[in-house]
UniProtKB/TrEMBL annotation:
Substrate binds at residues 10-17, 23-24, 62, 89-92, 100, 116-117, 160-161. It comes from Aestuariivirga litoralis. The gene is gpmA. This is 2,3-bisphosphoglycerate-dependent phosphoglycerate mutase. Catalyzes the interconversion of 2-phosphoglycerate and 3-phosphoglycerate. The record marks 159 as: Transition state stabilizer. The active site is at residues 11, 89. The keyword Isomerase applies.
Length: 206
């Protein structure tokens, strides 16, 4: 019986998460809490007896470090790992580096809310969730999904919006449904897929 196991993990808390800044493609490190979250995620996966065949992560260090910590906890520090910017966080454009409260003062509460929570309205110079999906979904379909369907057990450490876009595709959610989905930092989402690529089971190890 094939496992067809896919685990998605949003990176642990970053320094810019803590400061309430729009991060996007900038590359801050994890906070102490973020490091602890990554260790905890690895311990939870190990406690379930999970063992992986390949890992994927973004080109950003907060996701890569989260993955490394989890793999150390799993006793798999040398696991084959593929890094690609297709799994990067959404690019926040002109909002990048701004405090979210300062952005609200500059553009107004309603406009910033639209940029953060709409599906297809990008901030100036940046990406919408739809844009993020347009680069992450083809990558998933070409690389990650075939690995899972061939029976490999796959671990992905990425970002709130790139993981949201994968979840939207895997679960067949509408834009409205995915915008309501909250993803905790360092919390594994465990899928077992059927031969048709649809989820047989979903479990959040929160």
């Amino acid at each position: 019986m094939m496992d067809r196991l896919l685990v998605l993990v949003r990176h642990g808390q970053s320094e810019w998460n803590l400061k309430n800044l729009f991060t996007g493609w900038k590359d801050p490190d994890l906070t102490e809490q973020g490091v602890a979250e990554a260790h905890e995620a690895g311990k939870k996966l190990k406690a379930r007896g999970f063992h992986f065949d390949i890992a994927y992560t973004s080109a950003l260090s907060r996701a890569q470090r989260t993955l490394k910590i989890m793999l150390d906890e799993l006793g798999q520090p040398g696991l084959e790992t593929v890094r690609d910017q297709a799994l990067n966080e959404r690019d926040y454009g002109d909002l990048t580096g701004l405090n979210k409260d300062d952005a609200r003062k500059k553009w107004g509460e309603e406009q910033v809310h639209i940029w953060r929570r709409s599906y297809d309205v990008p901030p100036p110079g940046g990406e919408s969730l739809k844009d993020t999906l347009a680069r992450s979904l083809p990558y998933y379909m070409k690389h990650i999904q075939p690995d899972v369907l061939s029976g490999k057990r796959v671990l992905v450490a990425a970002h709130g919006n790139s993981i949201r876009s994968l979840i939207m595709a895997i679960e067949g959610l509408t834009p409205e449904q995915i915008l309501e989905r909250e993803l905790g930092t360092g919390v594994p989402v465990v899928y077992r897929l059927g031969a048709d690529s649809r989820p047989v089971s979903v479990e959040v190890l929160g």
